[in-house]
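Weekly puzzle thread! Below is a chain. First person to post its structure in token form gets bragging rights.
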Amino acid sequence: MTSTNPGTEPRRAFLAAAALAAGVAMSFAPPAANAQTQPQAQPPASMQPHGPSSVADLAEGLLGAVVNISTAQNIGSGGSGRGPVPAPRLPEGSPFQDFFDEFFNNPEGGTNEGPRRVQSLGSGFILDAKEGIVVTNNHVIADADEIEVNFADGGKLKAELVGTDPKTDLAVLKIDPTKRELTDVSFGDSRAMRIGDWVMAIGNPFGLGGSVSIGIVSARGRDINSGPYDDFIQTDAAINRGNSGGPLFDMHGRVIGINTAIISPSGGSIGIGFAIPSELAINVIDQLREFGETRRGWLGVRIQPVTDDIAESLGMDSAKGALVAGIIKGGPVDNGTVQPGDVIISFDGKEVKAMRDLPRVVAESPVGKAVDVVIVRKGEQQTVKVTLGRLEDGERLTEDAAATPSDEEAPLASADVLGMKIAELNDESRAEFEIPAEVSGVLITEVGQNSAAAEKGVAAGDVITEIAQESVSSPEDVANRIAALKEQGRRNALLMLSSKTGELRFVTIRMD
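Winning reply:
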């Protein structure tokens, strides 16, 4: 039944009569307020939004697999913690100063009542319900004495640590799957994700409990200098403190990333978050589950970026690949297969576009695998076969080698080249510049302030070991090599330098 205003009908009759007298046909639309409540026409299909209208169904099926990780650490004389927590910085004259001085300056590192317990919160997700496997970040559980997994319904289970990998900031935990029914999720393929694809993050921001946020993939392959294998997915889905270790899902409910870090001056989300891609995480997690540790491939080389100047010096068309700065003694390629000065441009069929690509692809390769490595050596491209060692063994080998000195005899001479003063490397100069016995070559004793060498960061105490991929052992060798390069019409000289710590690097110095 429809109601009308009592004065409406007479008014309509009057208007209709007036319209007929004027010869005009009129229709009476409903009042404006009623017009706004009528259904609007659907926009054309081309104008339909590309993003999901709601992720409620998706989130509902995933929340049960995302857990909160709480840890406890004993701090004090009887605990295994790293020491006392520093006192907070308070304004001068604060009324709380005496209280905090008494609490934090206890000589035993705790309160007068004994050791204290420090707790922290993070996120994680169940990867295998049958085995009770939980994945999180290493920094969430680092140095913890107790680890507890908290579920969305309020349930809790103690967790034991299966293995950790600080290099990728991943950790694997195990809970008892017989204690409760578990819901798990599976990994997706992060390589299939494109910039602009929708993603959803679930975690425990600020200890509030399970929270859902949505955004897109903002960028891929991000290097934030947090580790040797940085290859992060960047997203604008809100990630805050406490989200660490939580999953980043695609719109099919598959884990394509593990939320790890944010960039924020305030500690809150500003739309720049980073997740470890599943492409990198899967292999690490599988190794931690099987061995309790990682077993990465190892090539046994020290590398540095290929700059435009270095590429020109080596006769390359463009700057790409990873420049081999040195060979680890006793490593897989300590047989001359790969040499200092080689540029690795492909490894096991994978292109090495930049230096940082090589450590990741090598580490992801199985130990003992024979692979083809494409190198550029003195301007010519060639392929060599290399059998990989194990990175963890290589790290121990490098430490042992650094602790074993060797005697090297240096020539007697001095010279001025390319704005540098160079001299013999003898016992006196080694002591003066604190150069280890295992470093050999020609010592740089002084660098001109405005010289080309100074522009490249060359400093007194560096040692020249090679020029244009040929070793030098005396200042005379250095002068002769520079003169030969100038005769060849070269504009730059490629020098291999050794620092005081024995670390090798290449620099190119203008000779004009």
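Puzzle host: Confirmed. Bonus trivia for everyone else. The chain has four domains: 61-84+100-174, 190-291, 297-402, 414-510.
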